[in-house]
User: Fold these one by one.
Assistant:
Number 1:
Amino acid sequence: MATTTVEGAAPAHEHAEELDFYKASRGIKSWLLTLDHKRIGLMYLAGVLLAFFAAGVIAIIFRAELMTPQIDLLAPAVGEGSATIGRELYNKLFTLHGAMMVFVFIIPAIPAALGNFLLPLMLGAKDVAFPRLNLLSFYVWLTGTLILILAILAGQLDTGWTFYTPYSTSTHGAAPVVLAVTGAFVLGFSSILTGLNFVVTVHKMRAPGLTWNRMPLMIWALYSTAVIQVLATPVLAITLLLLLFENAFNVGIFNPAMGGDPVLFQHFFWFYSHPAVYIMILPGFGIISEIIAIHSRKHIFGYKAIALSSVSIAVISFLVWGHHMFVSGQSEFASALFSFLTFAVAVPTAIKVFSWVATLYKGSISFNTPMLYGLIFIFTFSIGGLTGLHLGTLSTDVHFHDSYFVVAHFHYVMMGGTVIAFIGGLHHWFPKMFGKMYNENHGRIGALLVFLGFNLTFFSQFVLGAQGMPRRYAEYDPEFQGWHVASSIGSFILAAGLLWTLIYLLMALKNGKKATANPWGGASLEWATSSPPIAHNFHDTPHVDSDPYNFPEIDHTMKTGHH
Amino acid sequence: MSTAVDAGQHAEAGHGHDAHPAYLQHHFDNPQQQEGAAKLGMWLFLGTELLMFSGLFLAYFYMRSQYPEMVHEYHEYLNKWMGALNTLFLITSSLTMALAVRSAQVGKAKLSGRLLLVTIAFGLAFMVVKYLEYSAKFEHGLLPGDAFAEHVAGGVQAGWYGGPQLFFGIYFIMTGLHGVHVLIGIGLLVWIYVKTQRGAFSGNYYTPVENVGLYWHLVDLIWIFLFPLLYLVK
Amino acid sequence: MTGLNHPLLAAASDTADRFGSLFTFINVISVAAFTMVIAVTVYFSVKYRRRSEGQRTSPVKHNFKLEFLWSAVPTVLMIVMFAWGFNDFAALSQTPADALPLRVIAKQWNWTVGYPGLDRECTAEMSADGGAETEFVVPVNRPFTVKLSSEDVLHSFWIPDFKVKKDALPNRYTGYTVTPTEIGDHRFYCAEYCGANHSRMAGTIHVVSQEDWKLWLDGKLEGVPNCKVDPTAPDYAPKLFVKYGCAGCHSVTEDRAIVIGPPLYGLVAKGSETMEDGSSVTVDDNYLRESIEYAEKQRVAGFAGKNMPAFRGRISEVELDALVNYIKGLGAVDQAPTNEDGTKSE
């Protein structure tokens, strides 16, 4: 840090008497009632990882079932209607997988877990603007999760995570659906609280000198995400409220037999759930921008383009919900409009990818674990994004809609994008969060397994979808079996990679080398405090006089040519 | 959180600004930052509230566009006069609320407290009228969905398809959610009143009064939309 | 059903042909873009790998020309994709005059494919393991139009080889037109999740030559179900009554549960109806027939603004007879045998 960008980054020894946030207070109560954003972030992290694990195990179970065309693993061996029982179980499993992954894991994963930990640190603030609200949001999240689990235990929740009417209001009695919808409703509130807190924090809590143009791109991404959370989630809340009301009183708003319209529910649902896709992916973009710049010791290429593309994606994301409904019977004019707007959201996304690649140019690229995940992200997310073109185009979507192609596409975006970024971010900030280093070689092996497993799992599903394999099928025609087996084997490799990662990270917590304050030479504020940070983040309020990608290795005398 | 210890520590470590007043939470640098954060947070919250209700308005307009005759026929069963009275109550309460905020701003805590009491009274009056309206609907079976059982208008059997159970479904969910907001608002007003009586606010620090005021205005505003849409269809 | 395979670009219909061209176009662009991104990434990663700590890096932060280029080129390509896709999409709802009309009804968990006016209806009962395999027949090179609806929840009628799909809704009709171009068997599936046996709600379309189509219509084609409907079956008319949507508006029971259209129970016994203009009309076979074929001509008092579609030309003579007889029997004295399922067939 020759050209140090931060004041107040006092060497640790001067303040040796101040304890890190783990040691600042002790006891279970000091965690459960903490107002420290770092501890709240870590509690969230533990929670979302548990949810990820549970939902992942469910996925492995049904991938094992899908090794054969018939229902066998999940069905009782003999008996009348055993196949139907097996299919019902399968339907419950994919519902749980989807609902847990979307509502409990991926939406809060980056903003509420990593974001909570990092946002005030990166802003040079002592905490988020509303620490009590922050703690509340965690407990609201926990409550929502528990309600959702209760719905699972109550049985017969088999609507898919989308709760489409009239199936969700007509089958199996209302209780599990009511519970699950209540759970999602409560989780939505948690999301609103986090978003509201983050928006205010970014506006009001930036350290002196940290202008908007000097904010790390992670902050821009978290900020755009928070804006969507605040604007879109209330609509989900009211949608779910209407659905609850519908279930409880049979009002008929979504019920065709009573003059309602089931497709209206889809409009309501996707008005939230499409922006929610960007709630999931935008923070991932932020992480990748940080990782790629820092580990290639380069100023991020096209800072403004990346920052503004986040904001424009956030805005346009509200206008594209109808692209989930091209075959739903909505008017052709509406479909055309939604298709056009969908392409409009693709352009800023492409700009981001190109900018990351350009950042590598004439850099000093390290192949440590976070960077490997950064590069994997470029690979998998590009596939996810490009296959979005097939789905945004009207006539090709007619074929791909509700097929394995869609399943593959959103897993490439959600898992190949968000989850890969999340794991990369976890490695990138692991030293900061826990004050320990993991074994790089273990990390590289894990990244390789995840990469191979992931692509085998989901690329196979593109082929299946194009061939005509519908999604949410417990059984399938025998000619699909080859690719299904490939996909299942891939999922086992992926699971092994993720388990491996979990194990070496847990080992690192116990036995890892002690991390320095700034192991990667980062120039943003979170690296200016000790690892792990002290309870109040900084000894003195830091002052910022440069941008977050001004690394000492950058040679300002070098010619900046085209490549 | 705003303990004296925290404030003391930061006064030492800080950058020369004045000692922290008791109401300043430790993670803020100065009262201006705290106030700005609280206000922005409140406005964002109001935004989420508006968006939530806008979803309901959408459902309402959908129903009305599909079944205009049914809506027109059955809105007559709502009591316009009670609705108008409630509108009057809420508008007046908004005025007294604004005056309460103003009084708090200029440091007249006693007057502010009294105005808050008047606001609470109007809020309660609204709920009483609402209770009367609801009990009339219950009595006549003008209820949402399966609960709908019409005893009025000579026992005419209503068709389920696009029937009045839709209108009353929307009516109850909209006014019900609004009523919940009024109740929460009354709770907040009581809290602010108690704090005012304890002398928590001054001309320097009255953000909570202001924010509760904003919330109360929103509740009023939503009602001003609900009233004509539900009670005065034509 | 053997010998089915699913080549990636099975072009078994006109829509599939168009799909193939656009799919190839998007694929070429996607693969080119992907290859470019990954090639550059790999090249940079190798060339600029860290050889020593403190290795100097370029100060480049942006490049307007480059950024403009990589924003503008995708924009143009995407506008092409959009326009092309929209054009093909619009073709799905253009129905030529000679199109074979098919009435496809989805329910949990089977498909029923009716041939309006041809007295044929292909369906499959659910087997013991919950599966139902509906098979139906269409001629090659003649467009068919699917008129789709659902009896319960949402379903979706997907024929992968034809590259067409549309959701079946319980409250209105949807559909599409497509021309099969390849003789042979093609699978179709329910693509919108609909509950327990969703994955078994499938079937096969037999696309046959024009000659075989004629044979099938004569009931002489071997190897495929002939789907002949038996108009003498006791549940024939009640099923028609539901199938043509009559049940949505007209009550057939004594309690008159539905009054969107005139209740039909006891109508013939009553003998006459009062019309909107005040006149009285005798309820007989011709009145009923005309009401079905041209509902607008027969406006019963008290039902202003309730429009019933005209069924002239959309319903066969056999069906018409059955419906008229069915309605005449509703609420008639001495005529309430009980069906197997215990309901009165009135």
Note: The radius of gyration of chain B is 23 Å.
Number 2:
Amino acid sequence: MAQSTTLQSPAAAATHDAPRTGNWDGGNEPFKASYGKLMMWFFLLSDAFTFAAFLTTYGMIRHKHEVFTGEAKDFVFSTRWWPIPDHVFNAFPGMGEANVPLGFVALMTMILILSSVTMVLAVEAGHRMDKKDVQKWLLWTILFGSTFLLSQAWEWSHFIHGHAEPTIMADGTKLFGANLSMNQYGPVLFADLFFFITGFHGTHVFSGVCLLVWCFIATTNGTFEKRGHYEMIEKIGLYWHFVDLVWVFVFTFFYLV
Amino acid sequence: MASHAPTEHTLAPGEIAKPNTGWIWRVFGILVLITAVEFVFVFLMHPSTLRNSIFIVLTIFKAFFIVAEFMHLKHETKGLIWTILVPVALLIWLLVALITEGSFIGEVLQNMFK
């Protein structure tokens, strides 16, 4: 430990081009990670705080509301209690009103995990300076990312338009679907949190897809080849995995628990 | 880093190393398996605090594999690992505190007019 943190001798410091190698003497790679990668890690840490704030808010508001205590099969939507997620998210595209609890969200989760895998494969190809492989895996990642976004659009649309069976309100009106001030599934804040949390995550996925498209263009133009390394793919890869990581938590706290 | 790095010194100039992707697909398999186990619990177990705890533990396992392997944090320096983990660990405190607060507010509101 002592060796790694020792300061340079004044003589070495006097020559401007002498490398600064200690952890605390202004060396340009404090954690043996490049500036860009380090800053990406710190950005992701701050982004983790934002998502944690959202999910903590979800937990707090959910615990503030009553829990449905009966049997799951007797469950009905009501503003009195928090909805059971597999009763809300049970539709699948092209299957009409068939009851497929959490089926579509399982598919979306698989798509996002797969996109994370193709992203690591792109990073790995970048380490080997294999331009063709980088292009191939970036395209797969863009494809899976876009598929996830389209799936989310369908999920939102179904959530907004509602189930075939309306929820009868206390004054006798029939309510379908959801908006920010009313929804057929449960307390107002349930739909609000759904829109904010999955929406914020979807925005991240969208930014990620844009960055990946830019990366693909730069790879094709040979920008990274000329630079001598594919570190940009690694940095954007870190961001992409973070988006997958957030989905793992959203999936647990919004759909499973 | 070293474990995944290609063996560059054996390559001729301009030659591209063979892909080393076995570990990537292994991690993928683990993530799929954990997700499958989560679904088994969704359908075979009634909602309870125990079931929620199982979900949270499985989620943390998944998070570990994504961050340690895919994001490569396991292979970074100790200083960077702690820099990321310590602030995140403090969030658990926030989570526990606010969920407790939420239960309390709910209890007060439900008993207000009794």
Note: Chain B touches chain A through 52 residues (CB under 8 Å).
